[in-house]
């Protein structure tokens, strides 16, 4: 039942579409915050007098922020989603820091929350850490510098600001953990669903007299279709030789490697060897610095997901999925259970 629900969910909206809808929502919230603050600053300027320097600075900052947000929104349907994501995260982070500098504490905290949540959901690990470091350094500086009172170092205002910063840190970390767990669970369910369908098809082939190799090739093809992958390789462990041999593969590269009886030993450089050794999955961009001898086969690969095939604690093999489309896989599953 769960697998059917997940399949229906992904059939209705793909991960890329989900990311795009999320970016659209964040842009709408940013525009609403900026426009509201701009209207408030303009009203303040007229009430306090047109020569109010603080209000003039705020209006200038908000006008620039509004223009940049609209520019990022215009890029959404003209550039790659990764470029738009990077621009959005940079905009929110920079606006939060700038808001602290000019003294717009309320808007700065709201933008900081958007930046932290966006980074937790959209950014890669290094980007998430960098954005958190920049935002929290700016917030701490603002809390300690602007509320400094020598006679009362722990003033109520400073305590309130530090409490809010602590709450933002908890929200950021919790969101990141939940996103990682959620992505791993959903991807694991999708792979398990694909393997389940493939195993049924392989069983049907076996019943009709197909060989084990033909059944495994069919399973690899079905997995490739399920993920729209450029290459799928299935490795099975030979415990006697302490190595894993590719027993099925898709495409020209897969057929050549299977015909060559390609094997990988645990601990070998590359995702497959490391997954065999540690039992931990891998997902991300292939490391171009690694010279594994397979570069000629996967030179066009932009994303790779490698997951162990498990029977309890035992590793029976590895499934290696490649894509020529960036960001195909965001987070790996913990492993594919076969029992």
Helical/strand content category: alpha+beta
**Count of discrete domains:** 2
Shape: elongated
Question: What order do the SSEs take from the amino end to the carboxyl end, as H and E?
Answer: HHHHHHHHEEHEHEEEE
Using DSSP, what is the number of strands?
7
| Rg result | 26 Å
Proportion of strand residues? 5-15%
Kindly, what is the distance between the CA atoms of the first and last residues, rounded to a whole number of angstroms? 18 Å
Largest sheet: 7 strands, mixed
Number of helices, where a helix is a run of at least 4 consecutive DSSP H or I residues: 10
Model regions low in confidence, pLDDT < 50 over at least 5 residues? 5-12, 328-339
Average of pLDDT: 76
Give the proportion of residues in helices. Answer: 55-70%
Summarize the structure.
This protein has 339 residues and is an alpha+beta fold. The chain is 63% helix and 12% strand. The chain has two domains: 2-146, no CATH class; 212-337, Beta-Lactamase, CATH 3.30.450.
């Amino acid at each position: 039942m769960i697998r059917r629900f997940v399949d229906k969910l992904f059939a209705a909206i793909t991960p890329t579409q989900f990311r795009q809808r999320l970016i659209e929502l964040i842009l709408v919230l940013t525009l609403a915050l900026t426009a509201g603050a701009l209207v408030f600053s303009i009203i303040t300027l007229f009430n306090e007098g047109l020569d109010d320097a603080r209000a003039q600075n705020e209006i200038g900052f908000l006008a620039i922020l509004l223009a940049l947000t609209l520019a990022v929104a215009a890029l959404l349907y003209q550039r790659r989603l990764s470029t738009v994501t990077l621009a959005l995260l940079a905009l929110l982070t920079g606006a939060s820091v700038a808001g602290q500098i000019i003294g717009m504490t309320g808007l700065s905290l709201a933008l900081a929350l958007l930046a932290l949540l966006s980074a937790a959901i959209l950014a890669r690990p290094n980007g998430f850490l960098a954005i958190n470091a920049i935002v929290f350094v700016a917030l701490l500086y603002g809390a300690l510098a602007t509320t400094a009172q020598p006679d009362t170092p722990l003033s109520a205002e400073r305590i309130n600001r530090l409490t809010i910063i602590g709450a933002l840190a908890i929200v950021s970390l919790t969101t990141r953990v939940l996103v990682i767990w959620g992505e791993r669970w959903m991807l694991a369910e999708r792979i398990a669903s694909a393997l389940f369908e493939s195993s049924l098809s392989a069983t049907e082939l076996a019943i009709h007299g197909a060989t084990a190799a033909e059944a495994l090739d069919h399973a690899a093809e079905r997995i490739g279709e399920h993920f729209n992958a450029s290459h799928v390789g299935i490795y099975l462990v030979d415990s006697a030789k302490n190595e894993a041999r590719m027993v099925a593969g898709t495409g020209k590269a897969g057929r050549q490697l299977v015909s060559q009886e390609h094997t990988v030993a645990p601990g070998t450089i590359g995702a497959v060897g490391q997954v065999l050794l540690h039992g931990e999955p891998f997902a991300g961009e292939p490391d171009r610095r690694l010279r594994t001898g397979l570069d000629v086969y996967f030179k066009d690969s932009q994303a790779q997901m490698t997951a162990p095939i498990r029977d309890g604690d035992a590793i029976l093999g590895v499934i290696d999925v490649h894509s020529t489309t960036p960001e195909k896989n965001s987070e790996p599953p913990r492993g594919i259970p076969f029992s």
